[in-house]
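Question (not urgent): is this output format expected?
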Amino acid sequence: MKFMKNRLLWGGFLVFNLSMFQKIDFSATILYRMRKLIFIFLIFLIFQNPSHAIRIGLQNGVKSTYIGSSKTAQIIDGQTGKPLFTMKPLTAYTIKPYKNVFSIRINNKNYKLNTNYIIVTSKEEKNFVATKHRWYRGELIVYNVNKKITVINRLPLEEYILGVVPSEMPSRWNLEAHKAQAIAARSYAVANMGKRLSKGYDLKDTPEDQAYGGASAEKPNTTRAVLQTKGIVMTYNNKVISAYYHAASGGQTKNAKDVWMKDLPYIHSVYGYDSGIKKSGHGVGMSQHGANNLAKKGYSSYQILNYFYKNIHFAVIKSPL
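Got this back:
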């Protein structure tokens, strides 16, 4: 299998004045606000694949799986690009390894697919693909690797974030917390593109990277937050940051070097604004409970992020998606 390397290409950037925001000094017990000019850098990030930006690993090393779609879809040979089978809407098809290729079960009979790499895609608008008892946007990619199955969801970055935010943060929480989560999740995804390239995908769909529940997880409140922050990421020294976050710090977040023995200059230990909440997660970066508590106090997503991540700028990624 050949997987694309260096999928992210950098271009130039432009600076413009976003607005005047209030900065918070959280080092003392009493909060104060002061006016600060915040700049956003427009960084033009061009993905080599013009249609899809990110690959998410849904299953790895399983003995069988099923695929489906909400509308008519096709199974394509990933090696040749030739169509192999037309899938009926709302119908589940079991896929298993058969030697070094696949077998597919259709109408209670097994048929051989002479390839170890298939793509489930549709030309229909607003189609969803299915596996793992969930609906997903984009396409499914299925590999037979040493007689075990790997299932990948390939989709535009923004559509991926739609499924991350409600999986990482309750939809009933404050909108500004959701917006902070969307920016943090998008930053993490861009910074870690290709992290799991040896497996054929970029990130897992679990909290080991970011929880991702696909289209099945989407909620109106979190979708609103993603749309309102479309393309926005955080940068440090002109690079998108790996914006680590966790559920609750138990009162004080941690320095990255105290957890992983590596220093991240944009993450410092700070008061987590989540005292009284049981510690959950590694404690590095933004506390999700802390972000929601600050949002309820009236602070914006930008103020929240500027507190948990130090000396950062905001950027808008530009891609043909």
